[in-house]
Amino acid sequence: MRRGLVLLILAVACAAGPASAAAPSFANEQLAGTLADDYWEPTTAADPHSGYVYQAVTGIGSHECAQHNCPGTSILVRASTDGGATWGPFLFVCGTACKNVGWQFDPELAVAADGTVYAAWLNTFDPGTVLSKSYDHGRTWTTPVTMSGTLRYNDKPVLVISPSGKDVYLAFNGKTDAYAVASHDYGATFSAPVKTNSDAFIYLAYGGTVAPNGNVYFGETGEPKSGSGVEPVALVSSSDGGQTWKTTILDTSQDPPVCTFRGCYADFFSSQATVAADSSGKLVFAYLLNSAPGAPKRLYIRTSTDGVTWSARSLVNSLGDSNMPAIAAGTSAGDFRLVWQDDRNGANGWNTWLTRTTNGGASWSAAVRLSNLGSGAPYKATSGYTFPFGDYLGLAVDSVGTNHVIWGEGDGIYTGGGTGGSWWTNGR
Predict the structure, then answer these.
(1) What span, in angstroms and rounded, lies between the C-alpha atoms of 70 and 64?
(2) Which residues have C-beta within 8 Å of that of residue 142, sequence separation ≥ 6?
(3) How far, in Å, CA of 278 to CA of 294, rounded?
(4) Which pLDDT score is estimated for 244?
(5) 168 near 191, Cβ under 8 Å?
(6) To 10 degrees, the CA torsion angle through 294, 295, 299, 300?
């Protein structure tokens, strides 16, 4: 009788599949800056060997850039010395070196093993993406380095670095095609931009990683260069230090839901993709897609041990319209953290969510709602916030396994007096 009971328990456990990771616990969300600050496109990075954590935002209407003859849209960075418990002030990353630059957008951050902080952003579309470094935890920054080559336009950069920081890679959009550049001298100089696609789609990168073997991967999605139609979901990779790049289509999505907020552009809710590698070299590719034009997008993953052969798609979230995914590896093999925004609580009830896997994506913890305050800004309610303010969000995992997340919330008015801000939390 006892033996039969044991066998029954084992059978039930096997049928249930692999156990999910425990859901992480988070502190209440907090506003980065004040309600008077329109902080857009937030991102974050954590030092791999200390308690330093960094946040960057696009400061819409900020005055730092205006002091150097630009209209007042600036990239700002702040640092925490104690794992996100307390923060220093937001500081302008580019002083007199950015004199007469019209505007700045799209910040990206990374931290090397020696604590050097790398920041990339747009200095307008021409020269576009620039790279700067800080050796004193974000207090001062080197003169920005350009990488546009002969291109007169680039947009939406994604930055990844090797652990030492010697190898630096960026993917960006050149209006009609996708490009990538590489540096192997700590970002001092860059290769000429290499076009990574050869089809009739405009590709945009949303996240990337350098695997332990040195291979580089970016998650990208395509939009038709003319008209509408399917949106390819692609992995862009290099195994030779960025000399050549391969684009592999892993899935396809349909036209995105229409963004009806005032001043919102048509492709705001397009499919997006990102990828991370753990310490063993396992890759988890997270992406969004729908199966019918205008339908809400679901969040899926695929996994690979070599970047060549990929698993079938696996559903992570089907509630609401998923957007802005970010993924990061944790502190051990098989450990990944995944964050996104969705409107499962209604058209004006957006929220930010996080889930975790400890078995390489075979199963995921229950999603944790990070945007847990129903008040504190005019765009917040018990159901969530009105709109996912900004084109990106940020996720980083520090040396002790704490998740650091920052995202945008707003009222959805792009023109004519709209407002929003960047909110953050951390937990494990």
Answers:
(1) 9
(2) 132, 133, 134
(3) 34
(4) 98
(5) no
(6) -90
